[in-house]
Amino acid sequence: MVCFAAALGAESVVEVEGVVAAPRDPVLRATARHVEVRFRRIHCVARASRSLPFSLDDAEAEAELEGPGTGRARVGQDTRFNQRALDLRTPANQAIFRIQFQVENKFREFLLSKSFVGIRTLKLNAGASEGGAAVFKLQYNGQPACLAQSPQLHKQMAISGGFGRVFEVGPLFRAENSKTHKHLCEFTGLDAEIEIKEHYFEVCDVIDGLFVAIFKHLNESCKRELEEINKQFPFEPLKDKHVLACSCNFLFMVGIRQLVFRFCLWPMRTAQVVLNTAAVPGADLEAHL
Q1: What span, in angstroms and rounded, lies between the C-alpha atoms of 86 and 83?
Q2: Sequence-distant (≥ 6) Cβ neighbours of residue 97 within 8 angstroms
Q3: List of long-range contacts for 57-62, beta carbons under 8 Å, 24+ apart
Q4: What residues does the Aminoacyl-tRNA synthetase class II (D/K/N) domain cover (predicted)?
């Protein structure tokens, strides 16, 4: 039985019957590290090829730990996309998909709590929906048509129709002339539109609360996913939830004065500040810096 199992290629699908027990040492190559299966019977459901396009160990490696001299083969983007089903088995890729869903879900949840209405807009239009972006053109039953670049017009129509606050999560298409690995011609847009009743600060407050809610949710509910992504794609940790609860919200002129004070007047170490900070209540530059 041991020889049979050893002859199976990596990524083969097997059915195992055995007893769950505590291992002598933690199992390092599994998410459940404190239990193991002492199998009595093993059956191969689907045998994988002995020569896979790449190993998951190489695909999971941090970018700086790949390539010559590292002992790991570099798995390029084209190879990953050509073998997408295999590449999706890496913990980091699965974590990215799960976090994308959580962001989308929290986006909807927060806006619904602020009296927004979810809408569905057309993705096949008679003309371009946004002048600043290139458009995919096609023929539909002999008539010219375009794929939607943005739901902007339809959102504004909904506001004019009396909805007050609307949002949409849906696919968008932009035929921009770029082939970089960070560029997407098709992506999922998180769009919102709001009727301003008194002041544009109403929009700022919604956007501020939205981002704080999303980041707090990721910090609290996606710790394992963030850890998996950080192993392969290191990043600065998200702000602490106590910091996020007190986001920075100040007037535009206060921000301008802070920038001028910081980059123009601060090195001079002079008390002769040209700007009159008393014009805006609470605009204590030194306190902010």
Answers
A1: 6
A2: 88
A3: 59/86, 59/87, 59/90, 60/90, 60/91, 60/92, 60/231, 60/232, 61/232, 62/231, 62/232, 62/233, 62/234
A4: 77-234
pLDDT per position as a tens digit, 10-67? 888 889 899 999 888 888 777 777 888 888 888 899 888 777 888 888 888 776 555 5
3-state SS class at 168:
strand
Tokens of 245: 């609860």
- Chain segment 218-258, per-residue pLDDT in tens: 988 999 999 999 988 888 877 665 556 656 667 778 888 87
In the chain, how many H helices and how many E strands?
A: 11, 8
Structural domains in the chain, CATH included, are: 1-51 (no CATH), 55-89 (no CATH), 96-244 (3.30.930.10), 252-288 (no CATH)
> Which residues lie below 8 Å from residue 247, measured CB to CB, with a gap of 6+?
208, 211, 212
Other C-beta atoms closer than 10 Å to the C-beta of 264 total 11
Task: Tell me the whole-structure pTM to 2 decimals.
Answer: 0.74
- Inter-axis angle of helices 223-232 and 91-113, to 10 degrees? 140
